[in-house]
Design a protein that fits this description.
alpha/beta, Undecaprenyl pyrophosphate synthetase, 9 helices
Length: 256
């Protein structure tokens, strides 16, 4: 049996550097309570705050949240419109808090489909937080994993066409350098809330070696304890060193 200092070292060494989350269940949460679907999305923002706070405490380097997929445009027009307004509101309200907590904000996905006002907010938020280093918060908005890979392939094809590289130089390492978040640690853990067991075109390249964690908890009910449970599960999958869940949780959540 390892002693407490050895256990702490093992836990800190094996905790995930990059966690990605599919935040599913907002609409169902609202419907179960007789509310309109957008109310669930508003409640979901509170869960985002809780999880970001927990990620900071635990010492996660990158946290990626699937906010709006490229397929979400197919939802009812009224719901999409409300989601865009919510996105704008959250960007406006939260960016100063992120900056104060030394969090860098990155938006991944095709932002050209958003309104000029949202694009400006995104650019301003990224510029303000650019040099922060405690945590990188990636928001996947109008993002699709297949489109991400196709975009990378297109960039490499252009480089071949212009003579910058030869076809023989193309390999998985080169393709990976053109994929979103190439400058960050690989995704170690992917969490999906809401009960479905699929990855829904999310980070197809980046999840190649990630551990997958599925929970029935709807996103608005996903709190810091639920997030810590997922991290504890990951740590115990990575290193079975005889520590209890309570011991691991205590180490993960100790103040830094």
């Amino acid at each position: 049996m390892v002693n407490s200092s050895e256990l702490e070292a093992l836990v800190n060494d094996s905790k995930p550097k990059h966690v990605a989350i599919i935040m599913d269940g907002n609409g169902r949460w609202a419907e179960q309570r007789g509310k309109i679907r957008i109310k669930g999305h508003h409640e979901g923002v509170k869960s985002v705050r809780r999880v970001v706070s927990s990620a900071l405490t635990i010492g996660v380097e990158s946290l990626t949240l699937f906010a709006f997929s490229s397929e979400n445009w197919r939802r009812p027009e009224a719901e999409v419109s409300m989601l865009m307004k919510l996105f704008m509101t959250v960007l406006t309200r939260e960016v100063k808090k992120l900056h104060k907590n030394e969090i860098r904000l990155k938006i991944i996905g095709d932002t050209s489909a958003f309104s000029p006002a949202i694009q400006t907010k995104i650019a301003d938020a990224e510029a303000l937080t650019r040099h922060n280093t405690k945590l990188t918060l990636n928001i996947a908005a109008n993002y699709g994993g297949q489109s991400d890979i196709a975009h990378a392939a297109k960039q490499i094809a252009i480089a071949v066409k212009t003579g910058e590289i030869s076809v023989d130089q193309i390999d998985d390492n080169m393709l990976g350098q053109h994929i979103a978040m190439a400058d960050q640690p690989a995704v170690d853990l992917m969490i999906r809330t809401g009960g479905d067991h699929r990855i829904s075109n999310f980070l197809l390249w980046q999840l190649a070696y990630a551990e997958l964690y599925f929970t029935d908890t709807l996103w608005p009910d996903f709190d810091n304890v639920a997030f810590e449970d997922a991290i504890v599960s990951f740590v115990n999958r990575e290193r079975r060193f005889g520590g209890t869940g309570e011991q691991v949780r205590a180490i993960l959540t100790q103040q830094k």
